[in-house]
Specification:
alpha/beta, 8-stranded mixed beta sheet, 4-stranded mixed beta sheet, 9 helices
Length: 289
Amino acid sequence: MKLIALGDNVIDYYHNTQECFPGGNAVNVAVHAARLGAQAEYLGSLGDDKMAHIVEKALRENGVDISHCPVLQGRTTKVCSYDVVNGERSFIEVITGESWTGPLQIGAQELDELKTADLIVSSCNAKMPEQMAAVQALPAVFAYDFGEKEKYRTDAYYDEVCHGIDLAMLSCKPMDKAAFAELCAPLHRRGVVHVLATMGAAGQMLSVQGKIVEKTTQMVEASDTMGAGDSFLAAFLCSLYTAGWQKAKPMPEQALLAALAAGQQVSARNCMAQGGFGCKAEISRDSIE
């Protein structure tokens, strides 16, 4: 299985401990997919600063292909700053500077590369909503992470990005089935086949064209929840694809429960490591602040 993770790359900076980790939704998913045995590729714009080199090194060391990423000369890498206490992070700020690479612009070469994928995953943090229709028109199974922010849950945003989504994932507070069904309804109306809500310690709920499947979670004492959702998503996607997932195909409950279990196992393990995938970077505080 070839998985292409399309979108963002960042440096996650832990302000209170002065620690840095390469990350970003797409980078994290690509690394975890590679660790699970997938042929994984990251596709996104890379800068040519010290931060970008750290991201590139981490991807290469984890067996992720970055050979089709444009490297933009003179451009810099986004830094996301957090405080992390008892494993839980609180957001401080995003530092882009005047020369941030910005989102990837998909041209003919990138589109040709995306055509080689069996599975493509992207997210709201890729900042590429206007380009999603072209990507979803390709033969690959397509998954999209809508994150946790309400600005990515509006009718206008759904209209822009929903053109053939096989799996939509949302990070949510705990909710009951009725609230989950209400959350899923506008996505299903736009043709989304599977909708997955991850709710932290409360577990996950999954809607398959309106039929709800749920699974309680494994409880762990997390040392760092960064990347928990991305590791879950990577394992879920890999499991479901090996069960015969195809574009626009609703999957049976048994395969979905197995994929949820796989996601929980990998996510629980990742919560025992620091950063998106346990790769710490040596960067001076002066380079960040």
